[in-house]
């Protein structure tokens, strides 16, 4: 198999666990991923839908020989202290190599509607997010991992960004994996769609639009709702997430899972309730 024929991402038997904040020593580690297996071709755009081992990218083992030109952009960046300092955007971009990518940088400045004279500590969250995207995308990346990073963008900038990413996959054979909860305007964007629930794929990355609905949507009502809603990604995501919640709530009722979300049956006041009621002078 030639280098160009290798999948962009190839993951086999990947399981990942971690401890949750505030967990006790006796608590079991949280299983974030369970035996994940999938492969993505170069030039694909995969939309990852889901409620709030060893992997390979570009033929390399990511744990031993991490490949170059892989970019991850997530929401936590804009909260970092360094991104909120009194620094001019032009200087900020140059500090991360903007001068090496002038043509692509300038193209992104126009797409993302960025003012080079902005000061990072004076701009809004949405404007700061645009700077992050320009910073991350101005190099010629091969794989782009996006995690809810478009949440602060206005609809026009978001649409122009998605068009840019689509062109990158077509013209440079780059690969995009996009996790989001905003599905408006996405129907023509992905080449593949995937659904993850409880650390597992209930649907591995599958070509979009979906073809084999009888197997992918076994519930007749879910299939009917999907078709009546114009076979949109929004309708599909709503169907999947609604079913995910139903399964989780049923597992909690049967004692298969500890209830951690929603209202709790509680007859004895909590410590915080007792404390704040003591100093409540509103009555």
Question: What this model shows, in words?
Answer:
- Keywords: ATP-binding, Hydrolase, Nucleotide-binding.
- Residues 9-223 form the ABC transporter domain.
- It comes from Lentinula edodes.
- This is p-loop containing nucleoside triphosphate hydrolase protein.
- The chain is 31% helix and 22% strand.
- The protein has 283 residues and is α/β, with parallel strands linked by helices.
- A 6-stranded mixed sheet has the order 6-7-8-3-9-10.
- It has a domain at 3-69 and 140-220: 3-Layer(aba) Sandwich (Rossmann fold), CATH 3.40.50.
- Strand 9 (192-197) and strand 10 (200-207) form a beta hairpin.
- The mean pLDDT is 84.
Fill in the CATH topology of the domain at 3-69 and 140-220: Rossmann fold
Q: How many helices in DSSP terms? A: 8
The biggest sheet amounts to: 6 strands, mixed
Under CATH at level 1, the class of the domain at 3-69 and 140-220 stands as Alpha Beta
Strand content: 15-25%
Overall spatial form: globular
Return the structural class: alpha/beta
At CATH's second level, what is the architecture of the domain at 3-69 and 140-220? 3-Layer(aba) Sandwich
Helix and strand string, N-terminal first? Answer: EEEEEEHHHEHEEEHHHH
Number of E strands: 10
Question: Could you tell me how far the N terminus lies from the C terminus, measured between alpha carbons in angstroms?
Answer: 76 Å
Helical proportion, percent range: 25-40%
Concise description?
This protein is of the alpha/beta class and 283 residues long. It contains 8 helices and 10 strands.
């Amino acid at each position: 198999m030639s280098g160009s024929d290798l999948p962009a991402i190839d993951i086999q038997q990947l399981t990942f666990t971690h401890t949750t904040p505030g967990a006790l020593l006796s608590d079991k580690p949280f299983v974030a991923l369970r035996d994940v297996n999938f492969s993505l071709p170069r030039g694909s755009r995969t939309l990852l839908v889901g409620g709030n081992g060893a992997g390979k990218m570009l033929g390399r083992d990511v744990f031993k020989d991490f490949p170059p030109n892989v970019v991850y952009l997530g929401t936590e960046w804009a909260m970092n202290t360094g991104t909120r300092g009194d620094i001019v955007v032009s200087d900020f971009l140059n500090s991360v190599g903007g001068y090496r990518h002038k043509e692509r940088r300038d193209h992104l400045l126009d797409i993302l509607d960025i003012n080079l004279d902005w000061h990072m500590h004076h701009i809004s969250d949405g404007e700061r997010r645009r700077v992050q995207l320009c910073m991350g995308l101005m190099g010629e990346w091969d794989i782009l991992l996006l995690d809810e990073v478009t949440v602060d963008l206005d609809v026009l900038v978001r649409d122009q960004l998605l068009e840019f990413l689509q062109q990158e996959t077509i013209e440079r054979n780059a690969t995009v994996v996009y996790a989001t909860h905003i599905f408006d305007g996405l129907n023509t964007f992905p080449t593949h769609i995937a659904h993850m629930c409880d650390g597992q794929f209930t649907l591995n990355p599958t070509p979009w639009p979906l073809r084999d609905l009888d197997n992918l949507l076994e519930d007749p009502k879910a299939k009917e709702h999907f078709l009546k809603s114009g076979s949109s990604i929004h309708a599909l995501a709503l169907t999947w997430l609604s079913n995910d919640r139903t399964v989780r709530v049923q597992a909690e009722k049967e004692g298969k899972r500890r209830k951690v979300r929603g209202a709790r049956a509680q007859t004895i006041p909590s410590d915080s309730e007792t404390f704040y009621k003591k100093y409540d002078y509103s009555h």
